[in-house]
Design goal:
The protein is α+β, with helices and mostly antiparallel strands. The protein has five helices and ten strands; from the N terminus they run ααββββαββαββββα. The strands form two sheets. It has an eight-stranded mixed β-sheet. A two-stranded antiparallel sheet has the order 7-10.
Length: about 250
């Protein structure tokens, strides 16, 4: 009888440990990139201005200032870039990188041959977007954590490429547009007091129409905010995206 109770207690302890790991583990673990950022030099011997890391992907790249890179399309090394040489974190940052290999209307997930922002296209899938909600951005000797609140295709001409401190009115308008256009509704509060980050890459998702870019938007994790997953639901405008991935041709 005593042995029976011992086994029951051991079982309860194991179950408790499993539940603690499952429900108390943060949805994202920060990995320090300050040393990598400090040591990195491009093929032109230029230092990186920041570092980007994206949950669920192999995106773990230096961010270069565009004007110091001789050829941004050079395939010999993997980078992201910014059109603004930020030394501190503004309230609206935008980071770009190429998508050369993952350009179909049914993007692949986790292909090891994908580099730069190819794996960003994984966020076109609901299950992936639901499970991976964080972006780490390292700049000015600090690792910042951003929480995703929008995923969308955007007319490339409409993308604000410069990183800068925007007015509250401009931020409010931008946040509204992102939430309206996003294919998923995130249960993540965002307002004009937040610092925002946009990741942008090219796409051929709509076939011959090359006027669109794929954008993932996030806001800085607030002070004392828990690192947890928000509720994510598909919006009505996602239906046409699913149809395209299933092989149906439809205008963007």
């Amino acid at each position: 009888m005593r042995k029976k109770w011992i086994f029951i207690l051991i079982g309860l302890a194991l179950l408790t440990s499993i539940l603690i790991v499952r429900f108390c583990r943060p949805a994202y673990q920060i990995k320090d990139r300050t040393e990598k950022l400090k040591k990195f030099k491009s093929v032109e011997k230029q230092k990186a201005m920041a570092w980007i890391r994206v949950s669920g992907t192999n995106i773990d790249l230096p961010v270069m200032y565009y004007d110091v890179v001789e050829d941004i399309s050079d395939p010999t090394y993997d980078i992201a870039w910014s059109y603004t040489n930020d030394q501190t974190l503004p309230n609206k940052s935008t980071v770009f990188s190429h998508n050369v290999l993952n350009v179909s209307s049914k993007p692949l997930i986790g292909d090891k041959n994908h580099r730069r922002f190819e794996q960003l296209m994984s966020y076109v899938y609901y299950d992936f977007a639901k499970d991976n909600q964080y972006i780490q951005y390292t700049i000015n000797h600090k690792n910042y954590l951003f929480k995703i609140y929008g995923v969308s295709f955007v007319q490339t001409d409409d993308i604000e490429s410069e990183s800068s401190n925007r007015t509250k009115k401009e931020l409010k308008k931008y946040i509204y547009t992102v939430k309206e256009n996003s294919y998923f509704q995130y249960d993540t509060d965002v307002d004009s007091k937040d610092k925002l980050l946009s990741l942008v890459t090219c796409t051929r998702f709509f076939g011959s129409d090359t006027s669109y870019s794929f954008v993932v938007d996030a806001r800085l994790l607030r002070k004392k905010e828990r690192v947890r997953k928000s509720k994510v639901v598909e919006k009505d405008n996602y239906k046409k995206i699913k149809k395209i991935m299933e092989g149906e041709k439809e205008d963007a």
